[in-house]
Amino acid sequence: MLQRILVIIKVITQLEIRHRRLEVDMEIRKIMSDSNSYDNNNNKEEQQFHFVLVHGAGHGGWCWYKIRTLLEAAGHKVTCPDLKCSGIDPTDFNTVFTFADYNQPLTSFMSSLPPNHKVIVVGHSAGGKSVTDVIHKFADKVHIAIYVAAVMVNTISTKWLMIIFGKMYCELA
Predict the structure, then answer these.
(1) In Å, how far are 12, 76, 89, 93 from 26, measured between CA atoms?
(2) Where does the sequence pass through the membrane (predicted)?
């Protein structure tokens, strides 16, 4: 399953989505349907993941619209929360004083997940700090953490997937 996710992310980062949207969608469907190539698990339910896409500074959940569309077309659940004062969140930036305040929508969302529900958290840019915070607070609910050209705080002590500038790395602590 992890290899399948790596291939999907690689396809997304290598293809020009704007001009090849149909090709990308077909490639993702092919990868997701070819379960024998990547693992021996043929249970379709386990092939469906819940992605939580965290935007960077100056953006909102809207910035993930292309990736969200592709992942949902492949049958995955996708959540793109707006952090405080970002996207369509109406909070006045003069009232947000701490990182915990800024990250509260993501923290609330993770708290609301059922105990056995695991998500794949993806952070871009400053969203990497939010991903690291989620890993520490909700380690039992994070299946994989993916950093896409993101801030990465060097305090992770378990196995996490990191994707930086389109290149793939695995850290085994």
Answers:
(1) 12, 15, 34, 42
(2) 144-165
DSSP letter, residue 166: T
pLDDT along the chain (173 residues), means of 10: 65 51 56 50 64 93 92 93 89 87 95 94 93 92 90 57 40 35
Other CB atoms within 10 A of residue 105 CB: 19
Helix H or strand E encompassing 167: strand 167-171
First to last CA, the chain: 21
Domain assignments of the chain as residue spans, ordered by start: 43-171
Please tell us whether the domain made up of 43-171 is placed in CATH 1.10.760.10: no
List Cα–Cα distances, 68 to 116, 129, 138, in angstroms: 23, 21, 23
**For the whole model, what pTM was predicted?**
0.66
Structure tokens given for 29: 């469907």
How many angstroms separate the CA atoms of 86 and 103, rounded? 11
What pLDDT shows up at residue 168? 41
Which pLDDT value is given to residue 85? 86
Q: Where are the alpha helices (DSSP H) in 34-171?
A: 35-38, 65-73, 99-112, 127-137
